[in-house]
Amino acid sequence: MNIHEYQAKELLAKYGVGVPTGYAALTVEEAVEAAKKLPGPLYVVKAQIHAGGRGKGKFKELGPDAKGGVRLAKSIDDVKADAEDMLGNTLVTVQTGDAGKQVNRLYVTDGVDIAEEYYLSMLVDRATGRIALIVSTEGGMDIEEVAHSTPEKITTITIDPASGFQPHHGRAVAFALKLQGDLNKQAQKLAKQLYEAFLALDCEMLEINPLVETKDGNLLVLDTKMSFDGNAMFRHPDVAELRDVTEEDPAEVEASEYDLAYIKLDGNIGCMVNGAGLAMATMDIIKLNGAFPANFLDVGGGATTEKVTAAFKIILSDPAVEGILVNIFGGIMKCDIIADGIVAAAKEVNLQVPLVVRLEGTNVEKGKEILANSGLPIVPADDLGDAAQKIVAEVKKAA
Ligand code: ADP
Ligand code: MG
């Protein structure tokens, strides 16, 4: 789960982390009110979308010479003009894809006199099973490029969960950033605060780019991205509330309401499968037969007719889907339940694309009978290979 920059900054501030003062705004009037609360004379108006690269981004509706999604404003009138420019328009950045993202919120914040820009991030490192702190003096720019061309400028520090954050971790961060004196001390303190926040909030990733040294000698978090372990959100209702579903794929949001694991992909064959392993195998075998899956969808073990119907509708809501392959092993979930769901959903949505169904397991005969007697043009398949061949052939035939 991702949140917006201003929300992440508010969370970090609770752990003592230094951030510039700022206020979120949903309208031009709110943006102006926000600016009036700030001391000025320099303000920054920032588009709040769940994607980075906003500064260098471009608005679809504005000309190629228009400014991007992070703008320095020298007066309250400028803040107003920038807010009018950005709100409701579509920002395209290296991270949004060509479709871009509509800007519905702004963050109006203090302009900072920047002396240096640094990079600092934290993530759960699967290789070591530890939280890793990644720091670089090369902040503000594309960190992937820094990692590629000058990997020596990136330092990774991992923290043993048993002993937790130790003073030497803080010193290593400050050293990697080449900081002296008071700034060195600030960096040590910051690293500890970030680790505490990361752990306490069940973060998955925390990226600060840039972390800045101000001209008056303070370390401030100027931009941050924070994401959380979705499975831990029941422990943090206050964080869960920060979710902004308008930033997510609508089909994925609907799937999560039914507790379905759904991820949209680029192909044309919709898949409905139970179990993540079987779903992966199904996607592989579709590719082996020369086509591409339109989605990953795991209906899980204990699905009801209602859940299967929802899954079916979600797959069909994707206009790219030209055929559906259902591949279910009825263990906990019985084949006749699946069959009922498929028939009900196919009738409800007036299915127009070919549908191949492979059922195996508990009550398989009953399930096949339901499908055969449904009066729907469902193509039965005997095994995984047969199913994949049939759906690819059916889609070709229909095209
Ligand atoms: P993004 O990474 O999405 O482009 P950032 O928040 O990192 O957005 O902003 C891009 C650049 O804009 C920063 O690297 C920094 O140079 C400048 N910037 C951002 N916020 C401020 C601020 N409050 N004061 C001064 N400059 C800022
Ligand atoms: Mg940034």
Describe the structure.
A hairpin with a 4-residue loop joins strand 11 and strand 12. This protein has 13 helices and 19 strands. Helix 10 (305-316) packs across helix 11 (335-348) and helix 11 (335-348) runs parallel beside helix 12 (364-372). The longest helix has 20 residues, at 181-200. The chain has helices at residues 5-14, 28-37, 76-86, 143-149, 167-176, 181-200, 237-240, 250-257, 276-288, 305-316, 335-348, 364-372, 384-398, and strands at 22-25, 43-47, 58-59, 70-73, 90-92, 101-102, 106-110, 114-125, 130-136, 154-159, 203-214, 219-221, 224-228, 261-264, 269-273, 295-298, 323-330, 355-361, 378-381. Strands 8, 9, 10, 11, 12 and 13 form a six-stranded antiparallel beta sheet that branches. It has 399 residues and is of the alpha+beta class. The structure holds adenosine-5'-diphosphate and magnesium ion (MG).
The helix content, as a percent range, equals: 25-40%
**Residue-averaged pLDDT, rounded?**
93
Q: What global shape is seen?
A: elongated
Q: Tally of extended strands?
A: 19
**Distance between termini?**
38 Å
Low-confidence stretches are none
CA gyration radius, whole angstroms:
26 Å
Number of helices: 13
Count of domain modules: 3
List all distinct small molecules, including ions and cofactors, that are bound in this structure: adenosine-5'-diphosphate, magnesium ion
CATH topology of the largest domain: Rossmann fold
- What portion of the residues fall into strands of 2 or more residues? 25-35%
- Major sheet characteristics: 6 strands, antiparallel
